[in-house]
């Protein structure tokens, strides 16, 4: 697994309480599409790497990320998916459902320019298998989504952006604009501790 390129994670925060899934999908596209990354960053190279960061540049990136995230949320819950196929709309006040995330990721290119078919899976019924799906995706240079929450319901969507050599998963949290390391034992024990949520409910991963 190649080392994950440095990103200005702290600038990539969801603009409201309902757009965690959409923010994660914008980051998924950013990681696989250099032209889109350059557009967000206002530069001619990979986001966060082309030029030294400036206050004005950071403010512009925050605003573009906000605009793109809100537009993504509208599209991903609308009448057509990322490739134009009809889908059942979803009320945006309830966030983003896992099947909509699976459709979006199926139309989002990885860093190597290829597409993969994604499906969503209930994690709580087989946590070891769910974590292995995340590792397999990361080791194949593909992102995955994780729906986390309380014991009673899913509340937040984060993006697994890669696997490490020692069997953990790097996770982008749109609520805090942070990248953290998710360990297998924490995932299995319901001690995830991302944005205050501990329990994995669903994973959205590429088909093998």
Tell me the strand percentage band. Answer: 15-25%
Low-confidence stretches: 46-51
The N- to C-terminal Cα distance equals 17 Å
**Order of strands across the widest beta sheet?**
1-6-2-3-4-5
CATH third-tier fold name: Cathepsin B, Chain A
Mean pLDDT: 89
Tertiary shape:
globular
User: In CATH's first tier, which class applies?
Assistant: Alpha Beta
Write structural notes for this entry.
The chain is an alpha+beta fold and 208 residues long. The chain has one domain: Cathepsin B, Chain A (Alpha-Beta Complex), CATH 3.90.70. It has six helices and six strands, in the order H-H-H-H-E-H-E-E-E-E-H-E. It has a six-stranded antiparallel beta sheet with strand order 1-6-2-3-4-5, sandwiched between helices. A hairpin with a 4-residue loop joins strand 2 and strand 3. Helix 1 crosses helix 2 and helix 1 packs across helix 3. It is globular and about 45 Å long. About 3% of the residues have low confidence.
List keywords for this structure.
208 residues; alpha+beta; Cathepsin B, Chain A; six-stranded antiparallel sheet; globular
Topology:
Blueprint: H1 20-32, H2 34-41, H3 55-76, H4 98-106, E1 118-122, H5 127-139, E2 144-149, E3 154-163, E4 169-173, E5 178-182, H6 184-189, E6 199-206
Antiparallel strand pairs: 1-6, 2-3, 2-6, 3-4, 4-5
Helix pairs in contact: 1-2, 1-3
